[in-house]
């Protein structure tokens, strides 16, 4: 393990404490289950299919996205620093008969040992939970082969994102536990794109995720003011 890990122990503890409920589709992680098909379709489409591709999911948690990519035929690896979520992910993969390699390792250390090894790199809903998100972006770029697809999702640093993701989702609707997000850690798309371009990535597509509280459904949209997805290509 590296001496100075890019990790907030409080963030790890937050997700460790509720790890056993990761696959409860009506529990704290229900929003992740609900948006996963949208995110998976976006990734599969922009990457021009996941079948037989080497994929790594950074900050995989309990493996919701990682496992769904493996089900589409990807050779999937999930990395995270939370042992309990990884245990849950491994157990669930065994239960459903899907092979995924789950590893407890910092993204930077994994990147140093897996330089330009992956066709697709994903890092969703994780950048807002680490002290140095730019370092994670650099690590993701390092893992990607030239021409590979790299995907990030996070929350925009807007008043609307604060009102919807923190006041609405945490305090009013109780969709996620209070304290899940901190507005100071949200990231503007322009900032994320700037970091990615410095790491040799070129932005290719974007999408926002919109929640309709009336019919309780999520949709992909052009509005990136709250939760957004970005697709990058690793330049040669």
TrEMBL record:
A single MF term (Gene Ontology): 2-polyprenyl-6-hydroxyphenol methylase activity
Binding site for S-adenosyl-L-methionine: 39, 59, 80, 124
SUPFAM superfamilies: S-adenosyl-L-methionine-dependent methyltransferases
Reaction(s) this enzyme catalyzes, per UniProt: a 3-(all-trans-polyprenyl)benzene-1,2-diol + S-adenosyl-L-methionine = a 2-methoxy-6-(all-trans-polyprenyl)phenol + S-adenosyl-L-homocysteine + H(+); a 3-demethylubiquinol + S-adenosyl-L-methionine = a ubiquinol + S-adenosyl-L-homocysteine + H(+)
Record pathway: Cofactor biosynthesis; ubiquinone biosynthesis
InterPro entries: SAM-dependent_MTases_sf (IPR029063), UbiG_MeTrfase (IPR010233)
E.C. designation(s): 2.1.1.222, 2.1.1.64
Keywords: Methyltransferase, S-adenosyl-L-methionine, Transferase, Ubiquinone, Ubiquinone biosynthesis
Gene Ontology terms describing biological process: methylation
Pfam families xref list: Methyltransf_23
Protein origin, superkingdom: Bacteria
Record keyword tRNA-binding present: no
Role according to the record: O-methyltransferase that catalyzes the 2 O-methylation steps in the ubiquinone biosynthetic pathway.
Family, per entry: Belongs to the methyltransferase superfamily. UbiG/COQ3 family.
Protein's name according to its UniProt entry: Ubiquinone biosynthesis O-methyltransferase
Species in which this protein is naturally found: Pseudoalteromonas phenolica
Lineage, broadest ranks: Bacteria, Pseudomonadati, Pseudomonadota, Gammaproteobacteria, Alteromonadales
Gene (name only): ubiG
């Amino acid at each position: 393990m590296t001496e100075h890990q890019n990790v907030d122990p409080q963030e790890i503890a937050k997700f460790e404490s509720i790890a056993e409920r990761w696959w409860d589709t009506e529990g704290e992680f229900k929003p992740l289950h609900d948006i996963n098909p949208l995110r998976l379709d976006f990734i599969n489409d922009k990457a021009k299919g996941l079948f037989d591709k080497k994929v790594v999911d950074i900050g995989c948690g309990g493996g919701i996205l990682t496992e769904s990519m493996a089900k589409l035929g990807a050779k999937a690896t999930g990395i995270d620093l939370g042992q309990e979520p990884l245990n849950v992910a491994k157990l669930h993969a065994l239960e459903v008969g899907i092979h995924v390699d789950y590893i407890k390792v910092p993204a930077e250390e994994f990147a140093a040992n897996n330089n330009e090894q992956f066709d697709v790199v994903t890092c969703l809903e994780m950048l807002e939970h680490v002290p140095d998100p730019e370092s994670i972006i650099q690590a993701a770029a390092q893992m990607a082969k030239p021409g590979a697809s790299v995907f990030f999702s996070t929350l925009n640093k807007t008043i609307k994102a604060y009102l919807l993701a923190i006041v609405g989702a945490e305090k009013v609707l109780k969709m996620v536990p209070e304290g899940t997000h901190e507005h100071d850690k949200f990231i503007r798309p322009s900032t994320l794109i700037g970091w990615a371009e410095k790491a040799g990535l070129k932005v290719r597509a974007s999408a926002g995720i919109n929640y309709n509280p009336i019919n309780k459904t999520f949709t992909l949209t052009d509005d990136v003011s709250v939760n957004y997805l970005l697709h990058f290509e690793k330049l040669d």
